[in-house]
Batch of 2 targets.
Target 1
Amino acid sequence: MTDTRSTAGAQRLAATRDDLLRLLGDVDERKVLDILALKPAIDEIERAARRSVGDGDILAEEDRPLTAAASTVLDVLAADDEKEETSPAR
């Protein structure tokens, strides 16, 4: 069966687990569940993913603030990174 959704239409649909894994790669299952609970759109996941790797300074991105869902996705993705940076080395 062929997927006939347009790119714009697909971006407005809530992201699925498969979408998350495709866009974010290997993500902790707890993070996947936390993100899915937000019901973000695919484009929100894409924007958060770009920002999480430092690509948020792309000219087109500078003028558009993240949506609340995309911002929360970014927070979820960064949560463990912040803990690791503040944890003392053993």
Target 2
Amino acid sequence: MSDEKFHNSDMPFVPSTIETIDLAMYDWLDKTLNLHTTTNEGWKKVPAIWVSAERSFQIKNDKRLRDNQGTFILPVMTLERESITKNPSNRGKYYASLPPISQHSADLAGGAIQISRVINQEKTSNFANADTFRAIGQENYPRANKKIVYKTVSIPLPVYIETNYKIDIKTEYQQQMNDLTQAFITIPGGNNGIFIGRDGHSYEGFIQQDFSQANNTADLGEEERLFHTSISIKVLGYLTGQDSNQNQPKISIRENQVDVKIPRERVIVGDITDFKDKKIF
């Protein structure tokens, strides 16, 4: 099943990838927090920048982020993914290693976890009408129907990972740093847990306790005064499939068998033909 056809269906499911987790973390920082502070231009939103992008793209994408010399205009927040860890001890609901369905059969569609099972109304109705017409010569006659066709949707086994992100906050003034840092402390409440999401997936994150600071305010040199705070966040996520390198469908759709018929040659086995008493033209 193609991705375009699947996205146009009534089943809103998109595979979870590393990029999905990255976008979920960026959306939480840029849209959910939506941090503002007082600047020389008044109350202004602080931009969030994904630092792994090429510098040429950053300059062309939003020229308001840099001055004429190409340096960032403070205040600014940058987001970076530092590491990915596959830790078997931190497992989710599906912690057993379930092989794909195709590994035990000739079915090449793949998939290991069933996420949906609905009745195919059209095919089930066709079987019911055929049986009633064969029995009483009338379609759509109410009677018990045991030939029910189910459409089953399955996905690859989720693999759980730990993703570590680092948020760097850089400001020119202490008050700006206080405005931005306090939000990371108070928004999660009494604990450090947060929830982020993207494309229907939800991930749990934990803001680390230490807010390390690397200010140069004690230096009396000629460098520009800079307030710098680093915040680390660990996200527990999961991946489904191999993304672009997956040969099998990302979403596997199957239908069950309801009737098995084995045809046979009547002339060989000596059966009486249906047209014995009828004239054949």
